[in-house]
From TrEMBL:
Organism: Paenibacillus faecis
Protein name, as recorded: Nucleotide sugar dehydrogenase
GO molecular function, one term: NAD binding
Origin: domain of life: Bacteria
Pfam families: UDPG_MGDP_dh (PF00984), UDPG_MGDP_dh_C (PF03720), UDPG_MGDP_dh_N (PF03721)
Statement: the UniProt record of this protein carries the keyword NAD: yes
UDP-glucose/GDP-mannose dehydrogenase C-terminal domain location: 337-433
InterPro entries the UniProt entry points to: 6-PGluconate_DH-like_C_sf (IPR008927), NAD(P)-bd_dom_sf (IPR036291), UDP-Glc/GDP-Man (IPR017476), UDP-Glc/GDP-Man_DH_C (IPR014027), UDP-Glc/GDP-Man_DH_C_sf (IPR036220), UDP-Glc/GDP-Man_DH_dimer (IPR014026), UDP-Glc/GDP-Man_DH_N (IPR001732), UDP_ManNAc/GlcNAc_DH (IPR028359)
Protein family according to the UniProt entry: Belongs to the UDP-glucose/GDP-mannose dehydrogenase family.
Amino acid sequence: MEVGAVNNQYQKLLEAIESKNAVLGVVGLGYVGLPLAVEMVKQGFRVVGIDLDAGKVDRLYRGESYIHDISDETLGEVMATGRFKPTTDYASLREIDAISICVPTPLSENQDPDTSYIVTVVEQIKRFMKKGILITLESTTYPGTTEELIQRELEKLGYVVGEDFFLCFSPERVDPSNAKFNTFNTPKVIGGTTEACLALGTALYSKYVQTVVPVSSPKVAEMSKLLENTFRSVNIAFINEMAMMCDRMGIDIWEVIDAAKTKPFGFMPFYPGPGIGGHCIPLDPMYLSWKAKGFRFYSQFIELAQSTNDNMPYYVVNKTSKILNEYAKSIKKSNILILGMAYKPDISDLRESPALEVYELYKDSGAKVDFYDPYATSFRDKHGITVPSVAYDLEKFKTYDCIVLVTNHSNLDYGAIAHLGVPIVDTRNAFRDFKFPHIYKIGHSVQHVAEANEALIVG
Ligand code: SAJ
């Protein structure tokens, strides 16, 4: 690759990368940063992991992993190499030749991007800045962030990008608890500010990621990640709208999807649900629509998807009301049990979980609400009160007026719960194998019964 004036900073760093003598840094040791640091150590590099949370650093030194995908055993092996140094001290940046920034990019109260974590890291980098460093931002963010929040800030200090320092964007693609795809085997897109930046970023990431996908700029890399997750948000919103349409038309959306997905080309199934949760899908599209507005471009798809997905908890509660009506009951004063509080199956993560919204809406409607989740054992409600999960007790579950399945954890005994005879609102089609009249699902109409007790016939 022609790098133009290949200066000695470039040459020195490239040699350090190739020989694995480069000291690597990871800022932010969360679900992205810690697995990244582990891969770097596994490939023979010395790694400094910087995190503001001293508790995390202490746990790492004690060999206690707080990330589901990194076992204590793996962490112990990494610590035993002596090549991983977790610290809270940003002065360690002085030792680092290449740094990957993996800090959160949440939304502010009014749904605007909150890039304060990135800004804080850049301020620290400026304090300990030295020539020849490669900086790669991994945090999901709007196109232009790498240039606006990092490149411009360092150029203000007189450094020239592509000569005095090197700058890339490489979006994280970590899917927590994904048993098949991990940091090493998930293809990694990377965009460099200059050709020299891209050459160094590609050389480095190729050392611990199986497939590196170079693109022409940080903006392309930034935008590619937002496309990936906005694609999901829009398609989930679309199938949620189809579910409400089918409900109205008395057609089973779940059967419709199963039929459509037999098409071997040109179709990709998404499934209705009680809304969308997690640290990516509810947030990433808002980063894109916010930035686009700066160009006077208003993405109707993103806004419509956000409002459709945000409406789903209300749809679930309204449906519950219709179902209880079949038993001459109202939500008010009913005892409701929510099964599953986490934002997706088989994890404990509660971030943006729609179950939290469903819970509050039932409470606001005057119901007594409990929840059971085998992974998420408690949460803080909107008043800051800690709400614990109830114990798994089928006899107790029988006493509820209604059971609402919000998160379809694999380890729930759907057969036993179906046979309790308690009316069920199934938001995930998790009870698909049990065709009982008291089991209802979103995306299909409420089967009307003449008498309340008729609906309780258990097959
Ligand atoms: N959801 C639906 N219907 C669907 C798919 C998802 O309602 O058909 C809901 C889920 O229940 C959840 C939310 O949407 O509440 C998000 O689900 P997700 O499957 O997108 O899982 P996430 O949030 O963990 O997304 C991550 C993302 N990974 C990265 O950003 C690196 C996403 O790009 C991945 O595609 C996704 O994991 C994945 O495929 O598991």
